[in-house]
């Protein structure tokens, strides 16, 4: 069962529980997960921050269960807790309203917000028990399916080469998540996969019989130089942009970089907390590439939320390996609603290296 816990959170069905204080949300979650995930007591407001637990619910698959604070919390601190609870909806696939018989406008608020965000809504009475809830969850047919990383790009029996730089920014003793996920998908699809470093690719002159070569954005130029001109090359970041975001929106955003002027603000949106290196992709390489493409001395702001984009002229989204597709699409839509173009890490670096071809073929659904 250990393998179930290793499924990345971004690949799980996100199920969030909402309700009033002492409605029984935490008790229900503990029964559902069969673990003491949430603290339970008779004191109103026991749950203060969202608490999540990974589990498997058959036949739905790998899930992420999240408990939230009661939406009728009071005072200034209570207001902040309510805001954090509602923020969970941004990444939720399913919202469960736990009803204990009390009337509240909050139920309608959550239901309407779910309808607006296309989030599945389940109304569950506390006395109905956990088995009834499981039945309702398993009966869901979620339509927002993420396409595969290689969908439409390679077929069974073809060959993919993953070029993985091992430098100062690489984690010790392991590959990064996008690399691992791509290798796994190759195995699942019956696609042959080889792995090497850029230096090894140079040594063989890039003469292998590969149908697709995938590398880190930062190694684009080096890998491209080692390959024949006809070889199809893309990046892990672009494949994730294709899977989780809107490649068309990103390509449109690339064309707007040249409109940037001195003093304009660019928001760099990251998906996770990580230790920054001296050559960090988000804080060093992306600003360098944007300045090269725009010719402008722009200002950069780094954040992990898209809550405030109004005063920015461009949003740059990371590869999103730790984010759900729903969250990435929400970020894109929020920026576009404000009239702000959006681009992606890998596509910016490819453009700066003169490798538009790396995302040109990937923008088509099939070869």
Furnish the topology, listing elements before pairings:
Layout: H1 2-5, E1 13-18, H2 25-33, E2 51-57, E3 61-67, H3 75-87, E4 94-99, H4 105-117, E5 120-125, H5 129-138, E6 159-163, H6 177-189, E7 192-196, H7 198-203, E8 212-215, H8 220-226, E9 233-235, H9 236-244, H10 247-254, E10 265-269, H11 281-294, E11 299-303, E12 314-317, H12 325-337, E13 342-344, H13 345-352, H14 357-360
Parallel strand pairs: 1-3, 1-4, 4-5, 6-7, 6-8, 8-9, 10-11, 10-12, 12-13
Antiparallel strand pairs: 2-3
Shape: globular
What oligomeric assembly is this protein in?
single chain
CATH topology of the largest domain: Rossmann fold
Domain tally: 3
Distance separating the two termini = 38 Å
CATH architecture of the largest domain: 3-Layer(aba) Sandwich
The proportion of residues forming helix, as a percent range, comes to: 25-40%
Radius of gyration: 23 Å
* Lateral strand order in the biggest sheet: 2-3-1-4-5
**What is the CATH top level name of the largest domain?**
Alpha Beta
Structural class: alpha/beta
Number of helices, where a helix is a run of at least 4 consecutive DSSP H or I residues: 14
Could you tell me the mean pLDDT? 84
Q: List SSEs in N-to-C order.
A: HEHEEHEHEHEHEHEHEHHEHEEHEHH
According to DSSP, the number of beta strands is 13
Q: Which residues form runs of ≥5 with pLDDT under 50?
A: none
List keywords for this structure.
single chain; 367 residues; alpha/beta; Rossmann fold; five-stranded mixed beta sheet; four-stranded parallel beta sheet; 13 strands; 36% helix; globular
């Amino acid at each position: 069962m250990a393998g179930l816990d290793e499924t990345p959170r971004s690949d799980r069905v996100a199920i969030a529980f909402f309700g009033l204080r002492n409605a029984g949300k935490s008790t229900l979650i503990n029964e559902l997960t069969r673990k003491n995930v949430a603290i339970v007591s008779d004191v109103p407001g026991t749950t203060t921050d969202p608490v999540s637990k990974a589990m498997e619910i058959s036949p739905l698959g790998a899930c992420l269960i999240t408990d939230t604070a009661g939406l009728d919390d009071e005072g200034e601190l209570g207001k902040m807790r309510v805001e954090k609870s509602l923020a969970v909806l941004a990444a939720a696939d399913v919202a469960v309203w736990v009803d204990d018989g009390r009337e509240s406008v909050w139920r309608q608020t959550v239901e309407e917000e779910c309808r607006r965000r296309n989030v599945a809504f389940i109304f569950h009475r506390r006395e109905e028990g956990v088995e009834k809830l499981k039945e309702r969850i398993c009966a869901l047919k979620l339509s927002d399916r993420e396409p595969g990383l290689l969908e439409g790009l390679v077929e069974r029996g073809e060959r993919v080469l993953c070029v993985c730089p091992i430098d100062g920014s690489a984690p010790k003793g392991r590959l990064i998540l996008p690399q691992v996920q791509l290798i796994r998908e190759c195995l699942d699809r019956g696609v042959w996969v080889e792995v090497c470093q850029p230096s090894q690719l140079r040594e063989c002159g890039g003469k292998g019989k590969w149908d697709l070569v995938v590398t880190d954005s930062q190694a684009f130029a080096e890998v491209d130089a080692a390959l024949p001109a006809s070889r199809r090359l893309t990046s892990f970041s672009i494949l994730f942009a294709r899977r989780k975001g809107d490649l068309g929106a990103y390509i449109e955003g690339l064309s707007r970089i040249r409109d940037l002027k001195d003093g304009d603000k660019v928001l760099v949106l990251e998906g996770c907390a990580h230790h920054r290196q001296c050559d960090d992709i988000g804080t060093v390489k992306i600003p360098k590439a944007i300045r090269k493409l725009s010719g402008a001395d722009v200002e950069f702001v780094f954040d992990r939320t898209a809550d405030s984009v109004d005063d920015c002229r461009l949003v740059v989204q990371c590869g999103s390996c730790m984010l759900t597709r729903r969250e990435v699409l929400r970020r894109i839509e929020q920026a576009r609603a404000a009239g702000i173009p959006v681009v992606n890490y890998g596509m910016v670096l490819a453009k700066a290296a003169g490798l538009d071809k790396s995302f040109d073929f990937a923008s088509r659904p099939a070869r």
